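In line with agreed milestones, work has continued on tokenised descriptions of protein folds. One protein thus recorded appears below exactly as we store it:

>
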Amino acid sequence: MPHTSYPSSYYAASANPVPARPELQGEVETDVCVIGAGYTGLSTALFLLENGFKVTVLEAAKAGFGASGRNGGQIVNSYSRDIDVIERSVGAKQAKLLGDMAFEGGRIIRERIAKYNIQCDLKDGGVFAALSAKQMGHLESQKKLWERFGHTQLELMDAKRIREVVGTDSYVGGMLDMSGGHIHPLNLALGEAAAVESLGGVIHEQSPAVKIDRGANPVVHTPKGRVKAKFIVVAGNAYLGGLVPELASKSMPCGTQVITTEPLSADLAKSLLPTDYCVEDCNYLLDYYRLTGDNRLIFGGGVVYGARDPSNIEAIIRPKMLKVFPQLKDVKIDFAWTGNFLLTLSRLPQVGRIGDNIYYSQGCSGHGVTYTHLAGKLLAEVLRGQAERFDAFATLPHYPFPGGRMFQVPFSAIGAWYYTMRDKLGI
């Protein structure tokens, strides 16, 4: 049964107005059929339309329904595995290409917001907060690494300095990235969907792709229609289901939980985050938080492997929030929700082609806001015959989870427990 409305969240409650987008009925022909109207699909569609392609987007629910409309709203640079890890795996040449792209997604977001006048509460500045000397050492190395790839908007912060931007005694230091920042993620997706339509692109909601006829003339089937296309872009990520079986074995949907407070007084909000930067800590299973445009605190964290919806999200996340900001103990929580992201075993995105005309990108592993916007550009480039940057991702090694889907959840949970204990013990 298709979803006809957004899941209850702060983002859905504060979303900009959206037009009705009818489901696909009958047969249409297009240059490119994009499956999924989240950031990956919308970014791809926009870049293709700007380059003269005819594009049809199929969305099972509503534009931005999945992770694109439910995430923490933070613009975080690089990838879930940083460039030094990639370099050790694939060598200096390929790592150089990937490193040069590691900060491009955030630039694309800002370009989109400016070009299409998207109202999504953009604020500059993101903080990586260290809970231990070991984590601070990692940030020092990360700053040198990022600067090696030309990224210079960075400032290391000692305990006194981080206290000026985050109103807590939890951290020993941190790093400020002024090219990071935060947005209302659903409104960004809705603005991008409107931009797609302004260029002549067509988005069909309530139109899940249920079957793909592969071959020289591929066809995507929905319950009431079909799209004949020259190329197909698969951009469903954690909400793809079993449509493309060879993608399912190499990835696992995971849920992350988010809560939002009632509106805070201006003084209280400013005492928590005086400079209105967003924050994420440096733990393996990290916490992240920021202020909204109307002075609420959004706080997220935790991972549920296999993407089950926990019964009481507030009970999971509120204690984490109070550990950082005990002064919020009497503040009411107005919204709590979960959203799925797609985890890969390497924690690097999976990009590639199936046959001659089906292309995909998936598995952002928690770094999706910026990476998906870059992915759209890469997918559009390869369809225009420029494959070098696409291939830098497509040739990354990827492996199925041990034991297939049956063992994905227990193996991943054991791994997460191991890293969580390392965080707690400071080793």
